[in-house]
Design brief:
It contains 5 helices and 2 strands, in the order ααββααα. It is an all-alpha fold and about 140 residues long. It has one domain: de novo design (two linked rop proteins) (Up-down Bundle).
Length: about 140
C-alpha cells in the first residue's frame, strides 16, 4: 500500500468519523435519543449517563475534534503529518478503550455508535503506523 493510498483511506475514515460525531454532538445538544439499529436502548443509556460529558463537553464533541485532527494530519504530506496522525490515533484509541471499559463495567450498556467509533479509530491507528513506516522509507514521496 502506497503512502498516498494510505492517506486517502485515512481521509475516508476521518470523514465518516466526523459525520458520525457531528450527528452525535447534535443529538446530545438537542437532548434527543440517538437512532440505533441494534435496539435495546444501549445507545440511549450511554448517551444519558454522566459519562456522556467530560467537564461539560460532550464526548461526541471530543471525538469530533479527534476526527478533525486525523483529517488534517491525513491531508499533510510527509513525516510530520504521519507523526501527528499517529499521535491523534493513539490517544483516540486509548480514549475509546477507556470509554468501552466504562460501557462494559460501569454503565452496563453498549452503544453501537461508540463501538463503531472505536473500530474506526483502531483502523486509523493501524493505517497511521503504515503511513509512518512509509514516510521514513520514502521521505520524498507524498
Amino acid at each position: 500500500m502506497s503512502e498516498r493510498s494510505t492517506r486517502v483511506l485515512l481521509v475516508v475514515l476521518a470523514v465518516v468519523g466526523l459525520l458520525m460525531s457531528a450527528y452525535l454532538t447534535w443529538i446530545h445538544l438537542r437532548g434527543v435519543a440517538p437512532i440505533c439499529l441494534a435496539g435495546g436502548g444501549g445507545c440511549e443509556t450511554v448517551q444519558a449517563s454522566r459519562y456522556a460529558e467530560i467537564l461539560g463537553v460532550p464526548v461526541a464533541t471530543l471525538r469530533l475534534a479527534g476526527y478533525a485532527g486525523l483529517l488534517l494530519s491525513a491531508l499533510l504530506r510527509g513525516e510530520g503529518g504521519a507523526l501527528l496522525g499517529l499521535f491523534i490515533a493513539l490517544v483516540s484509541v486509548l480514549f475509546s478503550a477507556y470509554l468501552t471499559w466504562l460501557e462494559l463495567f460501569v454503565i452496563h450498556a453498549i452503544c453501537q455508535w461508540c463501538v463503531t467509533s472505536a473500530i474506526l479509530m483502531t483502523a486509523s491507528l493501524l493505517l497511521t503506523v503504515v503511513r509512518v513506516r512509509h514516510s521514513r522509507v520514502e521521505p520524498s514521496k507524498g
